[in-house]
Amino acid sequence: MAGKIFVNYRRDDERAAAARVRDRLATAFGRANVFMDVDNLVAGQRFDRELEKALAETDVFIAVIGARWMQLLADRQAAGERDYVREEIAGALQRDMVVIPVLIERAPLPRGDALPQDIRALVLHQKHSVEHDQFGRDVASLIEAIRSARKSVRNATGRPEFAARWGWFAVALLLLGIAVAAGGYVFKSVTPLPVATGALERAWGKAKALLGQSKDAAQKGMEAAKPMVDKAKEAVGTAAATAKEAVKKPSRTRDEPSERTRGKPDPPERTREKYDPPLREAPSDGTRGLSPPAAPPGQ
Fold first, then answer.
1. pTM for the whole structure
2. d(CA 293, CA 87)
3. Residue 140 and residue 99 share a domain
């Protein structure tokens, strides 16, 4: 499952361009999936904690850099003021997420040796330029770059969407097959159904709980989900064995007489003479019941 896109910018630099980029990203990925401080922070919140929380939910970090970006960084360093823009970039680099420096109107990418140590790795990430004259095309290219980067990360870290979407479905299908097989044993006998049904209900409850855990683990990777799947298989296997043993208990079969009919004589067998009409015997002259010949004319 994809995380959020974090838009980082300096308010005294290119806040208008950052807002335009945010709007296009919100249209492509959904407004709830794009974070920008002016949209997501409300009065009374601890913005330092909210920014930290937003970074924890982020998988793509957009650093908007304009012509004044580097000068504003230097001014804050000289004044000894806390720089939240710098802290956000440092947090994104530490989390090893996708970081894209977006340069507005051909602003230069800062040199690594001119940056503080904690954000020096920013220059190692591929930049993307956005200009006013071709804003639509540049942002469309940025959107495609984000999608491509997310796909590359999923493939590289072993977190394919298949695990999240189909891992839990495969487990459910396995459980359904075992339940049907166990049900087949029940219908082959007239063992009181509550015995086998109770075993199956307990098995399904336990397997369903493990299934929920497996679904959550599948979103973190197929390797993390495998232990849960093995536990689900083991639980269902045990339940199936329990149901099978319940079916094997001695009980009355369909062919055995009931208490009402035990000791009573069997009803007389119907005879052909009673229900079928008697057959006519064939004539002895070999005509086998043919009609007599017609009389000659005139007689």
1. 0.54
2. 124
3. yes
